[in-house]
Amino acid sequence: MKDTIEICECELEVEAQLNKFIEITGKKPDYIEGHAINSKNFFQSLKNVATKYDIFYSDPMDKDWQKKYNVYVPKMFQLNENGVYDPQTYLESIEQDLLVHDTSILVFHPGFLDQYVIDNSSFTLIRIKELEFLCSSFLREWKRENNVEYIKFSEL
């Protein structure tokens, strides 16, 4: 299938969004990544803008990126017939693989929902379930028992 994204146009859009982020927050983001769009040109555009602005580029689905930063990426969760999954069950299913690696990455999309998100996102109930899980006593205890710590991309 032909990649319909034009790199130059995409870079302009990424830069516009980056500049808006800087305008709102007063700082550059800690990293740039774009896992939701499956396009080589899109990823190249992100990488180009990240390099231009000296921002960490995250691409955990790329095997070369995983090797360069020595980051383990576990298998993705499987959605059930209702389009959701249980984050705790998922963590328990990948626990042994996570704990034998020095650095692993898990991606979550927690959040509260407003009407716009409900109308425009495929990740609705998942956001609520992940938010509850990430704030749970189970996860706090699991982290403590397994000596797990969170790090920033800048620490890779």
From TrEMBL:
Keyword Cell wall biogenesis/degradation included in the entry's annotation: no
Molecular function per GO: hydrolase activity; metal ion binding
EC number(s) stated in the UniProt entry for this protein: 3.5.1.-
GO biological process, one term: carbohydrate metabolic process
Needed cofactors: Mg(2+)
Pfam families per UniProt: YdjC
SUPFAM superfamilies: Glycoside hydrolase/deacetylase (SSF88713)
Name of the molecule in the record: Chitooligosaccharide deacetylase
Provenance organism: bioreactor metagenome
Gene that encodes it: chbG_12
